[in-house]
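testing teh design pipeline on a random one, pls ignore if ur not involved
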């Protein structure tokens, strides 16, 4: 049931009866004066000039034709708008209540969409910069699920770089892996004794600092990195153990954020395809040598790349065309672009998705543009496959600068989560709930996610824990609280199922809010951003609060009216829960 389409087709018939032409240009949108009407169209204004008539006259003649419509009332208003209101929203409410998708209109052609987000690096501790990718990526994936696409998600671990060589070298020097180097060591049965995540979190930064001042140390680490790539023992066995340990931890960290993946593949999984990938570019004459490296020219004729402006009044500047993509360096190292290209090759061989969506911070925009162009040039990505980079902005502290600790260090991922959970626990304690750390996680994490996703993905935003955790306002906890409130009303009755009969403005506003919420899914789908869904979810919760404050549900004596109010409350709860699920936020029973 698509009300906008129904209205558009009613207007279309009228326009065709009147022979006004251009009936394919009718666009119906939500009213920007909701107190006057529900929908509007400026179609009459659009065609008036061509017809040589006044817009208001055109609008009036269309409205005259529509005066007998059963479901909608139409009116013409200056200078030539057609306002539309739904006579009774009960039908829509009951339709949504009985629809398996709760009225969220499904895409016409379901596609297979492959998501690449997360991108944690093995053996390196996650920090605050790693939070947005799983938050945004998971929510975008769920938007696609809610609209009926099939999805697959791969975390694409950074498990192949110098960090692995550095970590293993440091462990070796500190005596953590002696058994692996003993003669006749049975590598299959060896465990990494005494090596914990805490040890790894100390060893890597230590090695990373040393490599900057100790050339010999750095070249040893380079060598070990190469050994891992060549699967040379015992390095390869140690590497696999570290990866295992680290991936378990990474998985736990993502689960804290309700983020899950179909695949825990890493850059290393593409490694066997690197040579073949390079060969494709060589065979197709797309690669040329440059200063000992192999590069692919991806810039297009006459292209200028705009440099983002720092302020509105700054003149637009352009930079040189896209630099060539480096697919092979003289020493073989640093194959970030080639790895991503090889990964696309593999994904296409196995799944051939209609679209691949990458979610990373905006500093990687150039990288992905190069990778995408390479894949199109070489035919690795078929013409009709969409490759999309969703680039997000930085999470800043209250000072507007990247979020750091007081001493200026990068904040750890875990510390952010602990902070959220602790603050949520305090808030809950104020409400008399103590000792429920899972509830606190749901609320703390929900608060951060809703705060994050309420912004356009591309924008930087300020991490403000007090604002995010407020129990009223445009926050996650407010939505969760609204659901908990409905739960407590429903728990006091034995209501199971009933029909909604919309009988006043407050109820009407709720159903309109549901209608808008349901159309916001498509907005998010098209924009690769979640802010529209967050806002519409808040609007529904707040429409419910108004209704709840103005009407007594439990003490209503008219039985059918009471049933209807309960049915509407249940509907709101279901719609809010679906929206929160899509955002990757837990609903809660009570709080
Ligand atoms: N591991 C990378 C990093 O930390 C992010 C991976 C992004 N995904 C990709 N397919 N390149 O920068």
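output:
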């Amino acid at each position: 049931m698509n009300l906008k389409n129904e209205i558009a087709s009613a207007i279309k018939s009228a326009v065709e009866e009147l022979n006004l032409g251009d009936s394919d240009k009718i666009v119906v949108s939500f009213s920007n004066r909701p107190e006057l009407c529900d929908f509007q169209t400026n179609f009459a204004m659009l065609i008036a000039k061509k017809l040589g008539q006044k817009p208001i006259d055109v609008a009036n003649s269309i409205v005259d034709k529509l005066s007998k419509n059963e479901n909608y009332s139409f009116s013409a208003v200056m200078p030539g708008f057609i306002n539309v209101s739904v006579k009774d929203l009960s039908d829509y409410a009951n339709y949504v209540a009985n629809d398996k998708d709760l009225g969220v209109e499904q895409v016409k052609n379901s596609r297979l969409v492959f998501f690449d987000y997360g991108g944690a690096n093995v053996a390196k501790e996650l920090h605050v910069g790693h939070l947005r990718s799983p938050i945004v990526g998971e929510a975008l994936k769920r938007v696609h699920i809610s609209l009926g696409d099939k999805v697959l998600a791969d975390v694409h671990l950074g498990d192949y770089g110098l960090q692995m060589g550095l970590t293993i070298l440091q462990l070796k020097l500190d005596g953590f892996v002696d058994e692996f180097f003993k003669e006749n060591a049975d590598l299959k049965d060896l465990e990494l004794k005494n090596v914990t995540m805490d040890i790894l979190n100390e060893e890597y930064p230590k090695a990373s600092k040393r490599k900057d001042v100790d050339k010999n140390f750095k070249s040893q680490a380079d060598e070990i990195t190469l050994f891992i790539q060549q699967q040379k023992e015992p390095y390869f066995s140690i590497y696999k153990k570290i990866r295992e340990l680290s991936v378990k931890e990474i998985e736990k960290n993502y689960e804290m954020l309700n983020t899950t993946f179909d695949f825990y593949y890493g850059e290393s999984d593409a490694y066997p395809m690197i040579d073949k990938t390079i060969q494709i570019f060589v065979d197709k004459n797309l690669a040329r040598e440059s200063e000992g490296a192999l590069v692919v020219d991806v810039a297009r004729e006459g292209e200028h790349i705009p440099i983002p402006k720092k302020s509105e009044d700054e003149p637009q500047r352009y930079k040189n065309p896209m630099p060539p993509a480096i697919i092979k360096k003289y020493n073989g190292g640093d194959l970030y672009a080639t790895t991503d290209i090889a990964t696309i090759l593999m994904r296409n061989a196995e799944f051939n998705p209609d679209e691949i969506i990458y979610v990373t911070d905006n500093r990687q925009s150039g990288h992905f543009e190069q990778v995408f162009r390479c894949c199109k040039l070489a035919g690795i990505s078929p013409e009709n496959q969409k490759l999309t980079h969703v680039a997000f902005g930085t999470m800043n502290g209250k000072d507007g600068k990247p979020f750091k600790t007081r001493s200026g260090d990068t904040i750890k991922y875990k510390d952010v989560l602990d902070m959220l959970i602790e603050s949520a626990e305090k808030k809950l304690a104020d409400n008399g709930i103590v000792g429920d750390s899972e509830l606190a996680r749901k609320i703390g994490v929900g608060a951060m996610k809703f705060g994050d996703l309420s912004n356009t993905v591309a924008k930087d935003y300020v991490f403000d824990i007090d604002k995010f955790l407020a129990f009223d306002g445009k926050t996650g906890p407010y939505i969760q609280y609204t659901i908990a409130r409905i739960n407590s009303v429903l728990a006091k009755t034995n209501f199971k199922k009933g029909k909604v009969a919309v009988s006043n403005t407050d109820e009407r506003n709720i159903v309109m809010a549901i209608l808008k919420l349901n159309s916001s899914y498509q907005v998010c789908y098209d924009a690769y951003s979640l802010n529209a869904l967050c806002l519409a979810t808040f609007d529904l919760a707040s429409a419910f609060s108004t209704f709840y404050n103005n009407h007594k549900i439990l003490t209503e004596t008219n039985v059918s009216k009471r049933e209807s109010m309960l049915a509407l409350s249940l509907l709101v709860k279901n719609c809010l829960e679906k929206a929160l699920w899509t955002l990757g936020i837990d609903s809660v029973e009570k709080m």
